[in-house]
Every structure is written in C-alpha cells, then in structure tokens.
Amino acid sequence: MEKVFYKQNNKKNINLSQDYLEEKELMLEWKGYLLHGRCCDKLNKNETERLEWTKYMNDRAKEGRSLFHLTVTYKTFEGRDHTEQDANKNFINFYTKAFLPFLLDTRNYNRPRHRAVQPICLAFLDEHLPKPIEKTNIIGNYDCRFVDRLHHHTILAVHPDNVNTLLGQDINFLKEYKAASNVMTLHIVECEPQRLLYASKLMDKYPDYLIFSGLTCTKEKYKSDASFIGQQKQIDTPKLLH
Questions:
Q1: What is the DSSP letter of 79?
Q2: Which of 2, 47, 82, 200 is the most exposed, having the fewest neighbouring CB atoms within 10 Å of its CB?
Q3: How many other β-carbons are positioned within 10 Å of the β-carbon of residue 214?
Q4: Peptide bond into 238 cis (omega under 30)
Q5: Which of 29, 31, 25, 26 is nearest to 49 (CA)?
Q6: Which residues pair with 156 in a beta bridge?
Q7: 3-state secondary structure of 176
Q8: Distance separating alpha carbons of residues 225 and 210, to the nearest angstrom
Q9: CB 27 within 8 A of CB 54
C-alpha cells in the first residue's frame, strides 16, 4: 500500500514539475516578446502588468475557458476626434447591452446562475494608423491632419457553456442594437494567451483599461492570480474586478 501511495505521489510530483517547466518556458517567451529589439532585460511596471495578465489568462485557459480576441472599432465624430472617455463609454454600452445579452441569451446576466458563466473580459485601447485628411482652411488652401481614432482590443476568457455561440460567428449583426449605434466594425477570433500582449501594446499611453467579470470575488483573491490590476472606472454592471 505504501509503495502504491509513493508511486502516485511521485507521478503527481512529475506532472507538477512538467507544468512548472512549461509555464517557465512560456513566461520567457512572453518576456522575450515584450523585450524585442531592446538591449536591457528589465520590464517596466506596465510591461510586468501585461505579463501577469497573460499568465492569468493562460491559467483560465488551463481551467477550461476558451480565449477570444474581440476587436471593436467606432464611427467617427463630426468635427472632433475620439477621446479615451468616448471610446470607453461606447465599449461599456456595447458590451453590457448588446454583447452579454447575445452571448448569455438573457438581459438578466447579473443573476447568480448567469454570473458564473460570464466571460472574464479585459478591454485595452488602441489607435488606428494615422490617416491624412484633406481640409480646406479659410484662405482656400489644403492641409492635412491625422485622425486619432481609438478602438478596443479585448481578450475574453469564455466559459465552456458559451463557446459554441462564438465559434465561427460573424457578430457584426450586433451593430443593429441601439446600444451599439456608435460601433463601426466587430471581429472575433479564438486566440492564445500571448495575444493579450499585442492587445495591450499601448498600455503606457492608456493605462486605465476595462475589466469585466461576473465572478464573485475579492480584490485579495484576484491579487493571488494577477499581481497587478489597472485602475478602473467604476460601473455597476457587469461586476467589475478592481
């Protein structure tokens, strides 16, 4: 009996060692992505935060959630460019009033039985490539300015119960929702955890990303999973990790 117990324990230890080595290799790969082209090997605060969130999403994938990359672009405003507040407001409206009701097939997604299957969502701001626009000034000459249109790159950890709703799905029909009236395009695709590093590439410029989750949790519990959590704008629905 003792020999059998020893073998089982030994096998468990071997599996834990393999998991540790695989995770260590991934962390080195992700760190290499962040340090690409740089001579130093130290990460700044935001890069460390991005690395921690990538590990966090990798852990959620190990638990059985599927990761998706959702890109949301917005319509231009007449006479002015998007601000950070404009883009975040557009995303919050779209996510809470169009995307979640579609994914969970209910508007009552804050009820306990729906909260447990809500995605974990991290939404980061990004800028479009500069595009010159001709503009006539008072004396009739033309000049060019560059539009700073913001959009969101979002990484979702989706519960297994809802994965089939998104696989191979063109979700642009969600633009018909009133809450998505400012949305221009939607694109969603399955992804690996490392995609979060791309999605968060402008965190230095836009550090206050959005986090959504229906999970009931405390700040301390989530600190054990993700060491750094960005400062968030408080909203009521869905439950925000902060």
A1: T
A2: 2
A3: 23
A4: yes
A5: 31
A6: 68, 121
A7: helix
A8: 17
A9: no
Identity of the residue numbered 15: N
Cα separation, 207 vs 83, in Å, equals 14
pLDDT greater than 60 at residue 139: no
Q: pLDDT, tens digit, for every residue of 54-103?
A: 999 999 999 999 999 999 999 887 777 778 898 999 999 999 999 999 99
Give CA separation, 63 vs 56, 84, 154, in Å.
11, 33, 20
CA distance 229 to 88: 17
Distance CA 189, CA 171 (A): 11
Q: What is the Cα 197 distance to its own chain's centre?
A: 10
| Phi/psi at 93 (5° precision) | -60, -45
Structure tokens at 207: 């550090």
- 69 touches 195 (CB < 8 A): yes
Locus of tokens 């799905």? 169
What is the reported pTM? 0.75
What residue ranges do the domains of the chain occupy?
1-42, 56-225
- Tell whether the model's pLDDT for residue 218 goes beyond 70: no
| Nearest one of 86, 82, 166 to 121, comparing CA atoms | 166
What is the per-residue pLDDT across 156-177, written as a single tens digit (0 to 9) for each?
999 999 999 998 888 889 988 8
Q: Is the pLDDT of residue 186 over 90?
A: yes
